[in-house]
């Protein structure tokens, strides 16, 4: 995938040929990438959705097992679908654009009440919270 770095960390129990095969199952061929590591062995792994729902469980389980085997304490993987609880990049960009337009086009002093409700409608403060 052109959007992934040239080098990234993967569990050693996943063979290169498995990674190449699995990459076709991910949207944009965005394989799971190890983004952050804590001294206790916890890791943040980011990955795109799997295209084929029928293969999703098998591939997901294989990758999670490899991550668990790589953990010093063999801790189970905790998964969270951030697509459901966080805005996507397009929503953040739209909110930022609305905020910029509001700050440039609406004088605060003249329309304080309208300005504050317009600020809330941008959703910018919700997203950065």
From TrEMBL:
The family this protein is said to belong to: Belongs to the protein-tyrosine phosphatase family. Non-receptor class myotubularin subfamily.
Chain sites annotated for binding substrate: 88-89
InterPro entries: Myotubularin (IPR030564), Myotubularin-like_Pase_dom (IPR010569), Prot-tyrosine_phosphatase-like (IPR029021)
Residue intervals of the Myotubularin phosphatase domain: 1-129
Organism, scientific name: Sakesphorus luctuosus
Protein name in the entry: MTMRA protein
Single GO cellular component term: membrane
Gene Ontology BP annotations: phosphatidylinositol dephosphorylation
